[in-house]
Amino acid sequence: PRVFYIHSSMHKLFYYQFWSICAFLSAVTNIANSSPAFCFLSRRPTTYLIQSASELADAIPSIDVYILVDDNNASLPSSSSSSSVRYIQLNETFLIKEGFQKAGMFGSNKICSAWDKALYYFTRIATNYSFVWFAEEDVFIPTTQAFLSLHELYSLHNDFVAPELTYNMQGDSYSWYHWYLAPGTFTIPWAHGIVCIVGSSRRMLSAVDEYARWRGELTFVEFLFHTMGIQNKEMTIVTPLELNTIAYRQRIAFEQVRNRPNNIWHPVKSFVNQKKWRQNIINITLIDQNQTLNKFHVLKNKVMDNIGINSTSDLNDLLSTFELVKHQFTPAERQQLRQLFVHLATDQSEEISSLLHRLADHAFKLSEGIHDCDLFSLMHIEMKRFVVAHINTTMEEDRTEKYVALENKLVENKKTILWLVKNGNGSIDEIGRLRREAKQLTLNLTREIQCERRYIRCKQIVQNKPNLGS
């Protein structure tokens, strides 16, 4: 195996067409230059995890597969046992000095966890990857094709692929247990979600790297990615339904997996079950010989020919059948299916329309903030990203002088710290002071936003209280 160690230091039509063409050319270029990776996070890799990683690497040679080994005392497999898998072990003391700490303290009880190590490796060392998937070892992937379909469908045009995205617009510290960690890390709005398996673009990873350089630490990974994603106008986030079977804690039976073999599941802590279930899915697929795919097309044609108030049963059958065969469709075909189902939903009853839109989401889930009335093709997502960013910029709410002053000070603080870190000019004490200032400015700006938008009650004038950034 290859082992890595670190021990030391809307617009006019013209513009729409123009940007659509640019987006298409950009997409073609990105396809040519795309280089993805997949990283399993483990404390000590089990024999089964190594076997699963090797199968994934062999089945999809275009994706480099890694296992991050959190325990630096663990012995790594010999080169003959898993030559297609790459291993990562990193020195924790060095990473803490580099600001990669506190991303995964919950569960690991370590200031520098597997998450910190993985993020360091793919932001500072392996920067050649355009998209990186991270998965905990108790995530169950029924087949390599299930993962490949997910990757091909969503990685090219999204900066973050995640099981869920929950917004916290007002900075409410009580709606989620871990929000008490958020004040001082980001201004509002915040967002969070489970991260047992997620995919991140190079743009997202670069943002994580910049945050570590600026703050000297990361923050809890379950709101780190999500908050960065919603605050960056250029980023897109998608929550595919293939990941809606990821949960913090649940009981999973094989019957559930058999009905949705193209979904990713968590947690399945029994590696014996993982191995047995994977083989069962393979056997079922071999026996099927496209019978289910043919059934899907028959049902689809039936619905197309006779959609109406009596179509509920057929639509439910169509959905359950599609769950079994969706991996057999290309990304373009999945997108066309979405367009078809959305079109069929027009002028239907609420129940029928709801079922058809559900089918549409199962075929191809749109990125957050993108709607069917805006686009029907992947290349338009780039256009939508540009339009949304422009509209948000030109339609921002008026800000108070204090808001603008605090925001400017925070921007200057970030520039100063990044410059000092890059050039090695600042002392430890000076950079530490500036980082504490960044936290206080973030707290002050967040409060100003909450006051301005009346999320909280605030006095008009606060006297005799020192306020950094006032």
Characterization of this structure:
The longest helix is centred in the C-terminal third of the chain and has 25 residues, at 428-452. The chain contains 17 helices and ten strands. By secondary structure, it is of the alpha/beta class. Strand 2 (36-42), helix 2 and strand 3 (64-69) form a beta-alpha-beta unit. The strands form two sheets. An eight-stranded mixed beta sheet has the order 1-4-3-2-5-9-6-10. The protein has a two-stranded antiparallel ribbon with strand order 7-8. 37% of the residues are buried. The protein has helices at residues 13-33, 47-59, 92-97, 105-108, 114-125, 144-154, 202-215, 221-231, 254-259, 271-288, 291-305, 312-325, 331-344, 350-363, 379-394, 401-423, 428-452, and strands spanning 2-6, 36-42, 64-69, 85-90, 131-136, 160-161, 166-168, 190-192, 197-201, 237-238. Among the domains are: 2-243, Alpha-Beta Complex (Spore Coat Polysaccharide Biosynthesis Protein SpsA, Chain A), CATH 3.90.550; 397-452. The model is unreliable at 1-32, 375-380, 387-395 and 462-466 (pLDDT under 50). The radius of gyration is 24 Å and the shape is globular.
Low-confidence stretches: 1-32, 375-380, 387-395, 462-466
Structural class: alpha/beta
Rg calculated over all Cα atoms: 24 Å
Question: Any guess at the CATH architecture of the domain at 2-243?
Answer: Alpha-Beta Complex
Number of strands: 10
Q: Quickly name the level 1 CATH class of the domain at 2-243.
A: Alpha Beta
The proportion of residues in beta strands is 5-15%
Mass-distribution shape: globular
State the strand order across the main sheet. Answer: 1-4-3-2-5-9-6-10
Measured between the Cα atoms of the first and last residue, the distance is 56 Å
> Helix proportion of residues, in percent?
40-55%
Order of helices and strands: EHEHEEHHHEHEEEEHHEHHHHHHHHH
Largest sheet: 8 strands, mixed
Count the helices. How many?
17
